[in-house]
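Help wanted!
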Amino acid sequence: MSTPGSAKGRPRSGGRFISGVVEGFYGRPWTMEQRTELFKREQKWGLNTYLYAPKDDYKHRMYWRDLYSPEEAEQLIALISAAKQHNVEFIYAISPGLDVTFSNPREVAALKRKLDQVKTFGCRSFSLLFDDIETEMCPADKDAFSSFAHAQVAVTNEVYQHLGEPETFLFCPTDYCAAFCTPNVSQSSYLHTVGDKLLPGIDILWTGPKVVSHKISVESIDEVSSVLKRAPVIWDNIHANDYDPQRIFLGPYKDRPTELLPKLKGVLTNPNCEFYPNFVAIHTLATWCKASPDGGSRDVEMGEEEQDPFYSPHKALTLALSDWLQEFMSTDQPGGPCRQARLKKESSDEESMQTDTGESPYVPGPGENPLYTAEPLTLDDLKLLSDLFYLPYEYGTTARTMLQELDWLRNNSHAATAQTDKTAEWCSRAQQFDNMCEAVVQMFNRLSNAPNRSILYDLYNYICDIKSGVGLARAYVKTLGGQGQPSAQLMNDDPEPWGFRGGLSGEFQRMLPGHGIRDLFRQPPMTAVYSIRPYCSEDKTEVRKIFEEMQRGDEGRTPLMAQPPLISDGLSGGDISPSPQCALVVEDEFGVCGYALALTDAKPAAAKIQRVVSEDFPSLVVVQVLPRVTDPSPTKRMMGQLLSSIRSSGSRGVFCELRQSDRRMLDFFSKLGSFKPVHVHGLPEDVVVMATSL
Ligand code: GDL
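Answered by r_m:
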C-alpha cells in the first residue's frame, strides 16, 4: 500500500472524484488557522475538497440571511485563497432549512444575495443543506408545493442556475440516509422527487444506511444511485463525535469496500469536533481514496479478516500513526519545552550554558531531586491510544482484550466471595490485566509530556477519562483478588465526585431499560418481554413458590429446614412484609418469574434470629428469579429501582445474604460490581454477606 501523498488521485467517471473533509458537525467550529492547516494536510495527502458547513456558525445556519461583515469577509477571503493556494476546492454551504419559507420570493432572493456575496470572496463552489430540519411545511409552502421535496428542489435548482450552474454544487437532502427513508430507499417518494427533479449538474450528499453508518455496501449505493439518478457524494460520519462528549474516534477509515470508488462521486468525512486528533481520520481516508485496481497497490499480505484487496485498515492506520508520531514530537509552543533538547545542546556545546534569559539552567546538586525527565512517546503508545478510541461500532484489539479479560476475571471470581485462594490461572490473568492497565497509564504520562501541546489539549479530557476508568477497573480486580481495600475507590461512604461519573446524563442512562445491554462489548439476544411492577399482597403465594423452588434447586441440595436461617427467608416466605415502596415483581408471558424485596431497617427482623446488623448497612435486599429468566437485565433493573427507593428512605447502605449453593445469585451480585463481600461475625459457614454503601 502506498503512502497518502505518493499516488495521484484516479479520475473517476463523470468529472473528478471529490475527496476530503466536511466541517459539518455541531459545536465549536474550527479556527481559521486550523482550517488553513487542514488545507496543507489535504494537499500533502492528495485530498482535494473542503466543504464549509459548521452547524453552529451563526451565518451558516441560524442567521443564514445575514450578510458577512467586512471583518468576517476579510477572514473568509483569506481562507478561500488559502484553499486555492493548496489546490483544495472550497465549497461554501448554507443551511437555510430551520426557518426558510420556500414559496416566498424574498426568501429565495435572500439566499441568492448571501451566496452572491460569498462569490465575491472568490468562492466558486456551493452547497445547499437541508439536513436535520422539521419536515412539516408551513401553510404557505403547503399551498405552493405538492411536497417538501418539490419545495427544496425548486429553490435549489433556482439558486444553482442563478449562480451560473457552478461546476460543483452539492445538495444535502432531509432524508440523507436509508434509515430516514419511508418506507425505504427504493420506495421513498421524497428521494424519487429529488432524483427526478434536481438538475443533473447538482450532486447529492448521502451518509449511507444510517446517520453514522457502520458499513456502506456496494449494493446499498447501487440502490440509492438508481433512485437519485446519479452517484452520491458520501458525507461520512464514521469519525464524527459531536453526539457523545465521552468519545473520540482515532481508528482507521474502515468498512467501506474500495469497490465503491468507481460508484461514487466522492467522499467527504465529517470528523471529530477536535481538529488535531483528526490526523488519523483524514490520513486513512486519503489512503483509502488512493486504493485502486489499476494503481498497482494491491495488498498481497492481507489478513484473513481483511477482505479488501486494495486497502488494509490496519496498514493504513500504522502509516497514519507513524506520521502522527512525528507531529506529536514537534513543538508548537514558541519558546517551549525543550529542556531535553536544550540539555542535549548544552552537552555538545560548552558555550551555550546560558539560557535565553541569561540565567544558567538549574542543575541539581548531589542529594537533590533529579530533574523530571519524560520518556518520549512511542508508536506503540499511539497504537494503544487508537485502540482505546477506535470507531463508533468497534473497539480496537487491546481495548477488546481488556474488556474480555475483566469480564473473565469477574466471572471467575467466586473464589473471592468464598474467601479462598485464587487459582494460578486467575492470578496470572489478573496480573496481565494489571500490566495492560499500567500500559495505559504510561501512555497517558508520555502523551502528557509530548512537545506538541495542541494535540495533547484536544485529547486531554478523553485520555484523562480512560485513565480513570482503567484505574477503577484495576482497583476492582485487586479487590476481587483479595488485595487492596474494597472501600478505597469503589465503595467509599463519601466518594469524591469522580466516584460517580457521567453526571445527570449518566444517571438517566443507568435508569433506562436496556442500560448495559446495548454496549458494544456484549449484545445478548433479547428473548422475552419482561414487565416489572410493584409487589402486592396477592403476589405473596407466587413469591413464596419461587423462593421454595429456588431453595430446592439442584438435586442433592440440603433441604431448607436443615439450613441455617437467613433474615431474608422471612421476607421471601411471606412472614415479614417488605418496607413500603421496596418490593417489586417481574413477570413474563407465563406469570411472575422473579422478585426483589427489601427492608429499609433490618434490625428487628435480624434480632428475631439473634443476628446483628451493621450500622453501615442497615437495609436488606433479597432478589430471586426463576432459571427461565436467562437475560440479566430485568433483575438488574429491579435492583436499580429498589436501591434507589432504599436510598430515598435515607438508608446508608444495603446488604444481602447468599447461600454458597445459590451460585446464580452469587454470580449476579458479584457482577453488579458495587456489592462486595463483608465480614459478619457469627455468620453460618456457608453464608456470604455482600454489601454496598448508598
Ligand atoms: C448529522 C448531521 C451532522 C452531524 C452528524 C453526527 C449530517 C448530514 N448531518 O445528522 O451535522 O455532525 O449527524 O452527529 O450528517
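OP: Thanks! One thing I noticed: Residues 22-295 form a domain with the TIM Barrel fold (CATH 3.20.20.80).
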